[in-house]
């Protein structure tokens, strides 16, 4: 009996007294409602206090709270998983509704989405994730395109190298070079001379001289590939001049191998004056046909930086015949100066020499400077010029008629 009392006493102390100590209550201050007094056997025990009372309601609450904490720990994970699934379903419904929703979203992003305080905040957060994912996709696509372009460039370079290394291509290029050089060598003996006047160095700056030399190089290349090339003469060419230094800079070792004639003499000292014709845009005489017995002179200069009439004055001072290309006769001139580059002049002269067709030769004039060829009736020409000047230049009718009368013969004068 005494052992049973001791066991009951230990159970009470291990369950109720810790609860009292946790809530700061004393043993003798329990409420009087629904109390349980210990039996007389407990009271007679000397180690026991006179009267100990228990609150059964509080005891039940403590026991229930312990069970609830254990159950909540077991149920919290399934609830969290169910809420994430519900959030994913919500986002899927938004995607089906046509809203901007990212394709891939992590659990952390889902938790942040669930913690948003309002629906508008959730929409903004989802839109932010969508734009972020879109930027990543675009960056990835650009990187892939860049990689593909680099691979294609490498492949093209390798193909080009293989083509260059091909024996057939090497044989073909060497053979064509020999053929071009043979034609140029023949032109030095039998070809028609074409003179480049190299006496305009003092009229130009270093940059303008460099541009002039580049145009002459293009002219020489075009002439060398022609079926019937000219025999090119560089007259009034001084050693160690700006022209000379620029030619060496551009041609390098090939400068001494060019099949042309270079001299410091004037063209009047080499050729008879009655065969020389100075081509200049300022000449009052218009060139009608190409003469194979004449020797044409081209001023080696950039026309934009030269004052009007410089080449014409030089030709008159030397007593030479001058001529200008019939640009206004064959072309509906629109805007810009009627000056051509040296390589364009070379193309025109070579075409005239081979075909004697002005229309075919003047196709090398830049199309931005003219509207077409004069091959329509006068009424259509008048309408075209009126429309051009009205829309582009904004001129009045009187000015249009004056320009038309100036550019075309009197028999086409407007009424």
Automatic annotation (TrEMBL):
Indicate the principal place this protein occupies in or around the cell. Answer: mitochondrion
Region span, Disordered: 140-159
Q: Compositionally biased, Basic and acidic residues: which spans?
A: 141-152
Q: What are its E.C. numbers?
A: 2.1.1.218, 2.1.1.221
- Record-level GO BP terms: methylation; mitochondrial tRNA 5'-end processing; positive regulation of mitochondrial translation
- Superkingdom is Eukaryota
- Nucleotide-binding in keyword set: no
One MF annotation (Gene Ontology) recorded for this entry: tRNA (guanosine(9)-N1)-methyltransferase activity
Query: What keyword terms does UniProt attach to this protein?
Result: Coiled coil, Methyltransferase, Mitochondrion, S-adenosyl-L-methionine, Transferase, Transit peptide, tRNA processing
Q: Which InterPro entries match?
A: MT_TRM10-typ (IPR028564), MT_TRM10-typ_sf (IPR038459), Trm10_C_MTase_dom (IPR025812), tRNA_m1G_MeTrfase_euk (IPR007356)
Q: What class of enzyme is it?
A: transferase
Might you report a single GO cellular component term? Answer: mitochondrion
Query: What does the record give as the reaction this protein catalyses?
Result: an adenosine in mRNA + S-adenosyl-L-methionine = an N(1)-methyladenosine in mRNA + S-adenosyl-L-homocysteine + H(+); adenosine(9) in tRNA + S-adenosyl-L-methionine = N(1)-methyladenosine(9) in tRNA + S-adenosyl-L-homocysteine + H(+); guanosine(9) in tRNA + S-adenosyl-L-methionine = N(1)-methylguanosine(9) in tRNA + S-adenosyl-L-homocysteine + H(+)
Sequence ranges assigned to domain SAM-dependent MTase TRM10-type in this UniProt record:
180-372
Per UniProt, subcellular location reads as: Mitochondrion
Name the record gives this protein: tRNA methyltransferase 10 homolog C
Q: What organism does the UniProt record list as the source?
A: Callaeas wilsoni (North Island kokako)
Q: What is the lineage of its organism?
A: Eukaryota, Metazoa, Chordata, Craniata, Vertebrata
């Amino acid at each position: 009996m005494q052992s049973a009392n001791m066991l009951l006493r230990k159970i009470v102390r291990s369950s109720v007294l810790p609860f009292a100590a946790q809530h700061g209550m004393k043993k003798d201050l329990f409420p009087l409602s629904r109390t349980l007094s210990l039996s007389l056997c407990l009271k007679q025990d000397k180690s026991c206090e006179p009267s100990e009372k228990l609150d059964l309601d509080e005891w039940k609450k403590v026991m229930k709270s312990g069970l609830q904490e254990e159950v909540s720990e077991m149920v919290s994970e399934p609830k969290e998983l169910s809420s994430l699934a519900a959030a994913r379903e919500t986002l899927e419904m938004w995607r089906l509704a046509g809203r901007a929703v990212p394709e891939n979203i992590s659990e952390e992003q889902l938790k942040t989405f669930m913690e948003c305080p309002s629906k508008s905040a959730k929409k903004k957060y989802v839109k932010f994730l969508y734009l972020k994912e879109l930027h990543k996709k675009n960056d990835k696509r650009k990187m892939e395109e860049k990689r593909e372009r680099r691979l294609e460039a490498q492949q093209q370079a390798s193909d080009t190298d293989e083509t260059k290394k091909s024996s057939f291509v090497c044989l073909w290029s060497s053979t064509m070079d020999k053929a071009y050089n043979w034609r140029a060598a023949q032109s030095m003996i039998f070809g028609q001379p074409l003179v480049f006047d190299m006496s305009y160095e003092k009229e130009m700056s270093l940059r303008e001289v460099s541009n002039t030399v580049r145009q002459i190089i293009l002219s020489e290349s075009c002439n060398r590939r022609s079926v019937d090339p000219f025999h090119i003469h560089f007259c009034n060419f001084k050693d160690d001049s700006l022209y000379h230094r620029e030619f060496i800079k551009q041609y390098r070792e090939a400068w001494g191998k060019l099949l042309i004639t270079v001299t410091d003499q004037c063209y009047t000292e080499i050729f008879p004056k009655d065969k020389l014709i100075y081509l200049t845009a300022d000449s009052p005489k218009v060139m009608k046909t190409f003469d194979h017995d004449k020797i044409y002179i081209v001023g080696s200069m950039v026309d934009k930086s030269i004052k009007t009439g410089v080449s014409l004055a030089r030709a008159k001072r030397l007593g030479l015949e001058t001529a200008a290309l019939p640009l206004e006769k064959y072309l509906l001139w629109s805007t810009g100066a009627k000056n051509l580059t040296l390589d364009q002049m070379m193309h025109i002269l070579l075409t005239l020499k081979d075909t004697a067709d002005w229309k075919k030769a003047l196709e090398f004039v830049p199309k931005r400077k003219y509207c077409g060829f004069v091959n329509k009736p006068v009424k259509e020409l008048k309408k075209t010029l009126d429309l051009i000047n009205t829309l582009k230049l904004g001129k009045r009718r009187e000015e249009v008629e004056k320009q038309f009368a100036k550019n075309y013969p009197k028999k086409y004068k407007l009424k």
